[in-house]
Amino acid sequence: MLKELLNIFDKAYRFKVDYKLNTQLHNIAIKHLGLQNMNQLRDRYEGQTYLNRFLTKSFSEFAVQKMLGVDFVTLELKENKRYKPEVLFNDKTFEIIASSLDEYPLIPIGNYDYAIFTFVNIERREVYITGFASAAVLLNAVVSADLSPTKAKAYIGTLKDFSQIDFLDKLLIENE
């Protein structure tokens, strides 16, 4: 776990992904890869990498949906390999930036007003929704020097300074 994240986990909303949803998402990822079962997936390193990214993003989407109370993701939508959720809350668009506990979040290029940050422990099926930040704040807070040329096409940089992130209480209070 990144030591910089320890202080923001104290105020994070924690969700446990239930076993049934976990199994259903595994099955969808296996179907995306054209495999018959989990054993074939374990034989393919790239398959495991895909599964980890898929679960990290999917667990985060379902957790944010539950926290905000806004429906934008279903298992049926996840069947489409290119599905990207449109998260609207308080007339603002949100990007869900999901990371594992051992990596800094990559900030994608895109049209969104705010980003919500989640960190996922796949093995424990836990999602930590840590906070949010406006797109303008992110532009000034990211580090782009460490991006590879291929990642620079999709991302503006890596967030390493978490002091710019607002805690979710602020977002949820604004909704009341």
Description:
The protein is an alpha+beta fold. It has helices at residues 6-9, 19-32, 38-42, 45-68, 75-78, 135-141, 168-175, and strands at residues 13-16, 87-89, 92-100, 106-108, 114-121, 126-134, 142-143, 155-159. The protein has one domain (3-175). 38% of the residues lie in helices and 24% in strands. The strands form 2 sheets. A 5-stranded mixed beta sheet has the order 1-6-5-3-2. Strands 4-8-7 form a 3-stranded antiparallel beta sheet. Helix 2 packs across helix 4 (45-68). The termini are far apart. The mean pLDDT is 87.
Spatial strand sequence of the major β-sheet = 1-6-5-3-2
Number of domains: 1
Order of helices and strands: HEHHHHEEEEEHEEH
Give the helix proportion (percent range).
25-40%
Shape: globular
Largest sheet: 5 strands, mixed
Distance between the first and last residues' Cα = 33 Å
Instruction: Count helical runs.
Output: 7
Task: Describe this structure in a few short sentences.
The protein has 176 residues and is an alpha+beta fold. The chain has helices spanning 6-9, 19-32, 38-42, 45-68, 75-78, 135-141, 168-175, and strands at 13-16, 87-89, 92-100, 106-108, 114-121, 126-134, 142-143, 155-159.
